[in-house]
Amino acid sequence: MPKLPSVNPFSPTFGATPPLLAGRDRILDRFCEALDTGPTHPDYTLLLVGDGGTGKTALLNVLEEQAADRGWAVITASASAEPVAKRITGEALRHLDQADACHAERTSDTEDLASSESCSPCSLLTVLGELGAVMADSGKGLLVTVDELHAVDRDDVRNIEAAIQIITRRRQMPVAFVAAALPVVEDTHLDDSHATFLERCSRFRLGPLDPDETRRALREPIIKCGSAIDDDALDAAADVTRGHPYMVQLVGFHSWQMREDPGTPISVTHASAGALEAEAAMVDQIARPIWKRLSPMDRRFLVAMLPGNPDSSLADVATRLGRSVQYARVYRRRLVAAGAISPSENGGVRFLHHAVRVRAEAAQRQQ
Ligand SMILES: Nc1ncnc2c1ncn2[C@@H]1O[C@H](COP(=O)(O)OP(=O)(O)OP(=O)(O)O)[C@@H](O)[C@H]1O
Ligand SMILES: [Mg+2]
């Protein structure tokens, strides 16, 4: 008798690699092509930009796997209390130690660094240069990834940019670089007149998955686990996610859990109950933290956006608030940076997550 499917395949956890990485084939193909071509390929240095939950970390993980599968050294770093340049230097030294243990003699430069714990741009440049050379000798390369780049200190970012710029661009060494950041990075690190490296990286925007990819992301993991989902249930589940990758995992997960018997296909009833559960989780995990950080005026702005569906013009919002368009523009900028809204075409605004709209509706009812 075939085994009944029992393990839920979905991964509604930030940073978790999904059971199926949908809609990212083009980026993956281009990155693999870049690894195989070398530093002259425009996608050898990449910047992934997307709102929370669009799958930046998940994609970084998969890109790292691609490099590791080719025998490359991989150094991963993320914004934290410790300077990122220092972490990369430390990791590179560790890789050099391993390489030493195999054969090559370490130069006196990097031996000094190993004992000094230094993290100056010069030391980062030295160790990356040396590790790049070791990897190049063996026909491989080094991939450096930095997650949450928007939260990395400006001087720290400049140090990293300067080192990669020299190693990869100027010296053409096989050291590839991928960073991921929230869109706010475009007004901060990308706007830094002292450093143009990031601006010149290939930039990929991670947006919502299209409807076909959304259905695939839901259906394939279910089928792979030996279970099934009815066609109308799949359409309903895909619709409610609006293509948001985190929501795809939530809806998939909860629809799966709604069945008493995992041997029966997921029906519309299961999908609808799963969607409700998923929407509640989105409000808790995405909308509530955003809402908590907003000022009273930010919140009034969001409530004034409610009549527009999906878009509101800035002029309409300003009128509802009884303020000038110029005044509304300041709040639009603040709310975009807070991850609550996104600018729509023709200068309007729309809710970035349906869950934030739901939270604003709740606030309106309480008024
Ligand atoms: N392409 C995809 N297809 C299906 N699910 C995905 C995809 N990308 C990410 N996910 C899922 O979406 C969720 C969010 O992904 P991830 O943590 O990578 O987002 P993020 O952009 O890094 O968010 P944050 O900005 O908050 O760090 C995870 O549960 C992940 O498994
Ligand atoms: Mg992330």
Layout of helices and strands, plus pairs?
Blueprint: H1 25-37, E1 45-50, H2 56-69, E2 73-78, H3 84-102, H4 108-116, H5 121-137, E3 142-147, H6 154-170, E4 175-181, H7 197-200, E5 202-206, H8 211-224, H9 231-241, H10 245-257, H11 268-292, H12 296-304, E6 311-312, H13 314-321, H14 325-337, E7 341-343, E8 349-351, H15 354-366
Helix pairs in contact: 1-2, 3-5, 5-6, 8-9, 8-10, 9-10, 9-11, 10-11, 11-15, 13-14
Describe the model:
The structure is a single chain. With 367 residues, this protein is α/β, with parallel strands linked by helices. Helices cover 54% and strands 10% of the residues. It has 15 helices and eight strands. It has helices at 25-37, 56-69, 84-102, 108-116, 121-137, 154-170, 197-200, 211-224, 231-241, 245-257, 268-292, 296-304, 314-321, 325-337, 354-366; strands at 45-50, 73-78, 142-147, 175-181, 202-206, 311-312, 341-343, 349-351. The strands form two sheets. The chain has a five-stranded parallel β-sheet, sandwiched between helices. Helix 8 crosses helix 9, helix 9 runs parallel beside helix 11 (268-292) and helix 11 (268-292) crosses helix 15 (354-366). The chain is globular and about 65 Å long. It binds adenosine-5'-triphosphate and magnesium ion. Adenosine-5'-triphosphate is lined by residues 11-16, 18, 21-24, 50, 52-58, 182, 217, 245-246, 248-249. Residues 11-16, 18, 21-24, 50, 52-58, 182, 217, 245-246, 248-249 line the site of adenosine-5'-triphosphate (ATP).
